[in-house]
């Protein structure tokens, strides 16, 4: 019998520290399925989705090595809501299928689905509980701009295009305040790990 794993959805805005917290769980032996990786995997060269994107937007959206020019595509979809909707209709089902496959094959007491758009793309329907990595918007802007060398305006645009911090806070089951002292992060992850282990054990 194929027993479904207990799934923790981990989400948060740009620059909130999702990947850092995920890595903390990985050091404890927990499998992390990365939705951002899925979004790249489904548009790799020779994948049908990449051909559809090139046909729709033009071959100039491909780099010389045949991969997707993400910065060019990002500029178009942030400026054009219709094109953004078209791309989401194409990619979101493919991303979801990839994620489901990874979740079903994951080993361990529980598995984490790390996704910046957990709520926006209804991926929360795949999980048993939701952990939000929370950070005030001003700190998101500061950390994301330092990490990616991106313009503040572009980062703010990404934040504005996603569900508000307040709404995410109201929907999450667990809140990880990433504005707190970073020295306590490891201990707080271990505490959550123990809670998730208990939840996973009680599921079966």
Describe this entry's structure for a reader.
It contains 9 helices and 5 strands. The protein is an alpha/beta fold and 204 residues long. It has a single domain (6-198), classed as Rossmann fold, CATH 3.40.50.300. It has a 5-stranded parallel beta sheet, sandwiched between helices. The longest helix has 25 residues, at 81-105. The two termini are 13 Å apart.
Poorly predicted runs are none
Look at the structure and give the CATH class.
Alpha Beta
Decide which structural class fits the backbone.
alpha/beta
Q: Which value, in Å, is the CA radius of gyration?
A: 18 Å
Biggest β-sheet strands, sense, barrel: 5 strands, parallel
Strand residue content: 5-15%
Keywords, separated by commas or semicolons:
204 residues, 9 helices, 5-stranded parallel sheet, single chain, alpha/beta
Topology:
Elements: E1 6-11, H1 18-26, E2 31-34, H2 35-41, H3 48-57, H4 70-79, H5 81-105, E3 110-114, E4 129-134, H6 137-148, H7 152-161, H8 165-171, E5 174-177, H9 185-203
Helix pairs in contact: 2-5, 4-5, 6-7
């Amino acid at each position: 019998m194929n027993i479904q794993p207990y799934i923790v959805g981990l989400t948060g805005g740009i620059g909130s520290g999702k990947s850092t917290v995920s890595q903390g769980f990985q050091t404890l032996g927990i499998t992390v399925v990365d939705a951002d990786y899925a979004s790249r995997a489904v548009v790799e060269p020779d994948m049908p989705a990449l051909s559809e994107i090139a046909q729709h937007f033009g071959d100039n959206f491909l780099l010389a090595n045949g991969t997707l020019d993400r910065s060019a595509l990002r500029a178009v979809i942030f400026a054009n809501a219709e094109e953004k909707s078209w791309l989401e209709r194409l990619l979101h089902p493919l991303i979801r299928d990839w994620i489901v496959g990874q979740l079903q094959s994951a080993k361990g007491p529980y598995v984490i689905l790390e996704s910046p758009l957990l709520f926006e793309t209804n991926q929360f329907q795949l999980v048993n509980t939701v952990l939000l990595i929370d950070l005030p918007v001003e700190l998101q802007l500061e950390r994301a701009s330092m990490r990616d060398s991106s313009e503040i305006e572009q980062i703010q645009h990404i934040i504005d295009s996603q569900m508000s911090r307040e709404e995410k806070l109201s929907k999450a089951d667990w809140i990880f305040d990433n504005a707190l002292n970073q020295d306590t992060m490891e201990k707080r992850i271990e505490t959550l790990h123990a809670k998730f282990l208990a939840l996973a054990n009680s599921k079966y």
